[in-house]
Amino acid sequence: MRFERREHRPLYLMILTPLLAVVAALALAGILIAIAGAPVLEAYRRILIGAFGSRLSTTETLTRATPLMLTGLAAAVAFRARLWNIGAEGQFYLGAIAVAAFGSNMLAGLPAPILIPLLLVIGAVAGMVLILIPLWLRLRFSVDEVVTSLILNFIAVLFVSMLIDGVLKDPSAFGWPQSQAVVDHAMLPKLIARSRLHIGFVIAIALAVVVYFIQSRTVFGMRSRAAGLNPSGAAFAGVRLGSTLVKVACLSGGLAGLAGAVEVMGVKGYVTTDLSPGFGYAGIVVAMLANLNPLGVVLAAIFTATMFVGADGMSRSLGIPTYIADVTVALSLLTMLIAVFFTQYRIRR
Amino acid sequence: MSALFDIIASAGLWAAVLRIATPLIFGTLGALLCERAGVLNLGIEGIMTFGAMAGWLSVYHGADLWTGLLVAAIAGGVFGLLHSALTVTLGLSQHVSGLGVTLFASSFSYYVFRLVVPVAGTPPTIVPFQPISIPGLSTLPFIGPALFTQTAPTYLAILVALLMAYIIFRTPVGLAIRMTGENPHAAEAQGVNPMKVRYGAVIAGSALMGMGGAFLTLSAFNSFFPTMVQGRGWICIALVVFSSWRPGRALFGALLFAFFDAFQLRLQTAVQGVPYQIFLMTPYVLSIVALAVMSRRARVPQALMQPYRRGER
What we know:
The structure holds 2 protein chains of 2 kinds.
Chain A lengths: L1 E4 L5 H25 L4 H13 L2 H26 L7 H19 L5 H30 L3 H21 L34 H18 L1 H11 L1 H6 L4 H28 L10 H11 L4 H25 L5 H21 E4 L1
Antiparallel strand pairs in A: 1-2
Chain B lengths: L1 H7 L2 H26 L7 H17 L4 H25 L4 H23 L14 E3 L9 H5 L1 E3 H19 L1 H11 L1 H6 L4 H27 L11 H11 L4 H24 L5 H20 L18
Helix pairs in contact in B: 1-12, 2-7, 2-10, 2-11, 2-12, 3-4, 3-5, 3-10, 3-11, 4-5, 4-10, 7-8, 7-12, 11-12, 11-13, 12-13
């Protein structure tokens, strides 16, 4: 048995691939649900109800999808240039804590129309700063950025923990390590009244469109892609790899930092060390499920959020650990990898 | 200054160094074996988590400690099989496959653990490996209690390091592994099957990773809790680079690293007024520094991360 590269990839395969991968992942997770002794179809029905059964749950799912879209975009733009930014989790936390630092008192006097955009930029810049460390190590010392960006996640969370235990600690939180809250007029406006869904959702979708445009229609998008596909060929064709990678990294880190900023300004208002239930890591899956397509990221993020939000209710009623959501999401990354392989290769005997 | 000296002169510190080093030795050797054959295994963090859980769970259900360690090794090997199937047979990106294995293995560990142990106030415990005093040596002043009253898996880890150095540099199997990592086409021309070598190395290496994780629950602690591996897997990946892909240096690197870790733990209580998070950051900062310092001088296996397909260049 051997694999032969397909000359041409039919469009229907490209569309079917993510669907097949998700179905396969759900089937595999179904086995685990069955082993736990719960009815599988009923479990999935409850996940759907939990995620979309009411106005409240629907807006909750979309609220959860918002940071996932941004971390998913962060991974997608980086991976496309073969820049392995696995540090979105740390960049998320730095974006979040920067917003808490500047939005709680330093810039609090500014009016909302200036303050809100300014804070979003500050969050993005904080994310960029963090990713430039692994990038610098790669360009200067040729250190693989996977491990460095990953390890920086742990450092970033400890750094945030230090700040919310020290200079940024909220004195009114009864000794609880939590940052001071951003001022009320720094909070993002709600999209729908009596829900937590905020304008960040629209910002994330708009950014997905912008990133799609950048990647498919600009010279920079073409260069970043070339840098990923064939670095030496791209260099020969006059693409300056270093500066292209710096731009890609800034875009990627900025999006992840923005995710943290948006989560603080849209939902929580303050920072704790459990602000992110792994948004950075889930973003990797979101990007892969979308096959690194920025518009696909929007759908993949909603799927992932559906699993996370829906699993809560399902877990309560059927006694299945909520970790089944993480398992399903991770499985869909693996099934998607295999599915993409078979769009590129066919089996020959 | 005298506080620092007291810390370094205490046998407790040196005993802790060996204890902290043990999971790192297993993990680093496991990752090293995979990479020597040309496969980067970023599944390590998840595989260690699963090993910690699987080992603990079997002992909790009545198996003896050695069986628990074996179960962890087998479980690790199974994830190694998964990673090989994806990267060796299908030739997928080793980065992405490894991350997928990590995400899956760790969430799967938490799921299985929560199925068996529903949320409780205090986590259930087991009786872990007890320290063994090596007769004669353990009564030596100072180094006796430090080096010769460890638990059995620690002695095993050191043994595995020596054994692996012997296998890699002194046996035909080791030669086949090294050739596959350097140039699979040349290896094949010599009658070695690079696919089989890679499968074997990744499965065996992942089994070691599983054992490294199991050390945490079967010897260092007596219970399992999520996120207990805390980046040790990633640190092992950094240590492989630091060791320049040599088992002897991997052992040394893990010990050096563990020394700094044990030292910062004790410094936390000795030095007041510095946020404890600064101390906790040092192991992670150190591994990044080690990577930067060693990367240039390190001799990377030339075929690392390159998929091998027969007849394709």
